[in-house]
Amino acid sequence: MSWFTKAMSSTLGKKLLMALTGLFLVIFLVVHLSGNLQLLLNDEGRAFNVYAKFMTTNPLIKTTSFILYATFIIHIVWAIMLTVNNKKSRPVGYAKVSGSNSTWSSRNMGILGTIIFIFLVIHLKNFWYVMHWGPVEMVKYDGVEYKDLYATVDVAFSQLWYVVLYVVAMLGLMFHLFHGFASAFQTLGLNHVKYNPVIKFVGAAFAIIVPAMFAAIPVIIYFKNL
C-alpha cells in the first residue's frame, strides 16, 4: 500500500478529502444557482434554455461535469465512512460525549447528508436524466434549436409535493453548510484567531442565502402557475 493510499484511508485523510470536495461543491452551488435564477426571468424560458444548452455542449464544461460527478461520489462515500467510524469510536453517542461543545448541525451531519442525498436522486431523475434521455420538446430562437428544459422545470415546480421536498432539502443543505463550510477551512489548516470570525460569518451568510435563493425559485414558480 502506497503512502498516498495510507494517508487517504486514515481519518485525517478522509476529512481532508471531505473538505476539498465540499469546497468544490460550494463553487458548484454558486454556478448552479446563477443558472437557476434565469428561470425567474420573464422571457418564456429563453435565457434558461440557452444557458442549459451551453452547459451541456461546451467541451470544457462537459469535462468539468465528470469531475463534479466524481466529487459527489467521493464526498458521499467518505461521509458515510466517517459517520460509521465516528459511531464506532463513540458507542455512548456523539451528543453525550460532545455535550454543549458541538452544534446541532455538526451532530446530525449524517442525517442532513441523507436528506440531501435522497433529494439528489429524485432531482437528477427528474431533470438530469430527462435532459439527456427523456422526451423533451424543442424550441427555436433565432433559427437555432434548443431543448425546452424550462417547460420541464415549470411542470415539475407546479407540483406541490416536489416544491415541499425541494424546500425541505434546502433546509437540510442550509444546516449542512452551517457546519461544513467553516469545518472545511479548519481541516485544511486555515484556522487563525484573526480570521476565524470572518470565515464563520461568510460561512453562515452563504449557508442561509444560497439555500434560501434555491428554495425561493420553485416556490415562486409554483405560485405563478396557480
Description:
- This protein has 226 residues and is mostly helical.
- The protein has a single domain, classed as 3 helical TM bundles of succinate and fumarate reductases (Up-down Bundle).
- The protein has helices at residues 3-9, 11-36, 46-57, 59-89, 94-98, 104-107, 109-133, 149-156, 160-187, 196-224, and strands at residues 138-141, 144-147.
- The N and C termini lie far apart (60 Å).
Q: Can you say what the CATH homologous superfamily is?
A: Fumarate reductase/succinate dehydrogenase, transmembrane subunit
Query: Pairing-aware structural class of the strands and helices?
Result: mainly alpha
Mean pLDDT comes to: 85
Low-confidence parts lasting 5 or more residues at pLDDT below 50?
94-99
CATH topology: 3 helical TM bundles of succinate and fumarate reductases
Just give the CATH class. Answer: Mainly Alpha
What number of structural domains do the residues give? 1
Profile the largest sheet: 2 strands, antiparallel
**Alpha-carbon Rg, integer:** 20 Å
Q: Enumerate the strands of the largest sheet in spatial order, edge to edge or round the barrel.
A: 1-2
State the share of residues found in helices, binned by percent.
over 70%
Number of helices: 10
Gap between N and C termini: 60 Å
| Name of the CATH architecture | Up-down Bundle
Q: Report the sheet-strand fraction.
A: under 5%
H/E element sequence:
HHHHHHHEEHHH
Find the count of extended strands (DSSP E, 2+ residues): 2
InterPro entries: Cytochrome_b-558, SQR/QFR_C/D
Keywords: Membrane, Transmembrane, Transmembrane helix
Transmembrane segments: 66-84, 110-131, 160-178, 198-223
GO cellular component, one term: membrane
